[in-house]
């Protein structure tokens, strides 16, 4: 009798211990950007909130600077379950879901605030719903980086100055076309390699944003900062499809809610930090030249003609964007 009771107690204790271990989940989150980037800070803040709201059931460890590989590799890891979450560029998604390219139409939005409205609008949200089936990861929300601009080692006063120049681009088709139409030599290069190649003259200029120019010190290697704000640069919060399948509806809501909140927080964040960083860059030797769509002349129409055919969803996005106040 006594022995049986002891066995029963042991079984219950073992069950409880196993239950606690199985339900405590340390989520690994990968990013291509360095720890100082706003995307990494948002990921850390999300992790803290998640830990608190789940009473310690969920915690998040971030792996910034491409420590786990490039974004294509991270996407594979999400599919197999080797990685739990990522804050990933929409640029990488275009390689799997070509419609995502439409988000990179030049002058689709005028600033990060409008980007927030458009990305939370019906068309962009519907695109998120395709991710589980088409990339094997669940898209829980959007954020954004600061607006795209160019940091060039050569004086840049007209679009013609870009002709024949080697311009670093994030490796994906819509931006490749944009620079090719401008007569530049598009040079695909992931973020992690950009500073060195600018320093050693492998490229003449870079397609980048204010945060990279300031925080990664690209300004040290530049002559002109062409502040064109020519594209938005969305980031997508992804959760491994494998992990998602094991989660309860309540836990899914918790994780998706925290991720969406901190990614969406980036829209307001950049309204503020973009300005602060611009002021700091203006204090350096780099000449800041502000330009609008007219700078690029006929190139914009050429780009639009090509991409409206490839990604018809662009027409819908343009309509929604035009309605934003
Ligand atoms: C990029 O220029 O490739 C890039 C910029 C970001 C974040 C991620 C990638 O601000």
TrEMBL record:
<dbReference type="InterPro" id="IPR018389">
    <property type="entry name" value="DctP_fam"/>
</dbReference>
<feature type="signal peptide">
    <location>
        <begin position="1"/>
        <end position="24"/>
    </location>
</feature>
<dbReference type="GO" id="GO:0030246">
    <property type="term" value="F:carbohydrate binding"/>
</dbReference>
<dbReference type="Pfam" id="PF03480">
    <property type="entry name" value="DctP"/>
</dbReference>
<dbReference type="InterPro" id="IPR038404">
    <property type="entry name" value="TRAP_DctP_sf"/>
</dbReference>
<dbReference type="GO" id="GO:0055085">
    <property type="term" value="P:transmembrane transport"/>
</dbReference>
<protein>
    <submittedName>
        <fullName>TRAP transporter substrate-binding protein</fullName>
    </submittedName>
</protein>
<keyword id="KW-0732">Signal</keyword>
């Amino acid at each position: 009798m006594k022995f049986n009771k002891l066995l029963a107690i042991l079984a219950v204790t073992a069950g409880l211990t196993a239950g606690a271990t199985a339900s405590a989940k340390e989520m690994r989150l990968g990013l291509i950007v360095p720890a100082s980037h706003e995307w990494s800070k948002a990921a850390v803040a999300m992790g803290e909130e998640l830990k608190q709201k789940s009473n310690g059931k969920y915690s998040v460890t971030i792996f910034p600077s491409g420590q786990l590989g490039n974004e294509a590799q991270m996407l594979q890891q999400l599919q197999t379950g080797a990685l739990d979450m990522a804050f990933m560029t929409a640029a990488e998604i275009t390689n799997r879901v070509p419609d995502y390219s439409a988000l990179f139409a030049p002058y689709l939005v005028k600033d990060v605030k409008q980007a927030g409205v458009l990305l939370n609008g019906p068309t962009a949200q519907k695109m998120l719903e395709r991710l589980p089936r088409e990339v094997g990861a669940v898209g829980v929300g959007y954020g954004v980086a600061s607006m795209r601009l160019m940091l060039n080692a050569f004086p840049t006063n007209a679009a013609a100055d870009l002709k024949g120049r080697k311009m670093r681009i994030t490796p994906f088709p819509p931006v490749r076309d944009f620079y090719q139409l401008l007569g530049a030599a598009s040079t695909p290069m992931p973020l992690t390699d950009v500073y060195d190649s600018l320093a050693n003259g492998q490229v003449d200029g870079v397609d980048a944003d204010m945060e990279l120019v300031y925080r990664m010190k690209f300004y040290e290697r530049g002559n002109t900062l062409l502040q064109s704000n020519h594209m938005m640069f969305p980031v997508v919060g992804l959760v491994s499809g494998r992990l998602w399948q094991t989660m309860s509806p309540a836990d899914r809501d918790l994780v998706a809610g925290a991720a969406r909140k901190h990614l969406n927080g980036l829209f307001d964040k950049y309204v503020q930090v973009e300005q602060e960083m611009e002021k700091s860059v203006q204090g350096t030797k780099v000449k800041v030249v502000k330009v609008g769509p007219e700078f690029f002349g006929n190139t914009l129409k050429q780009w639009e003609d090509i991409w409206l055919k490839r990604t018809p969803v662009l027409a819908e996005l343009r309509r929604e964007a035009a309605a934003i106040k």
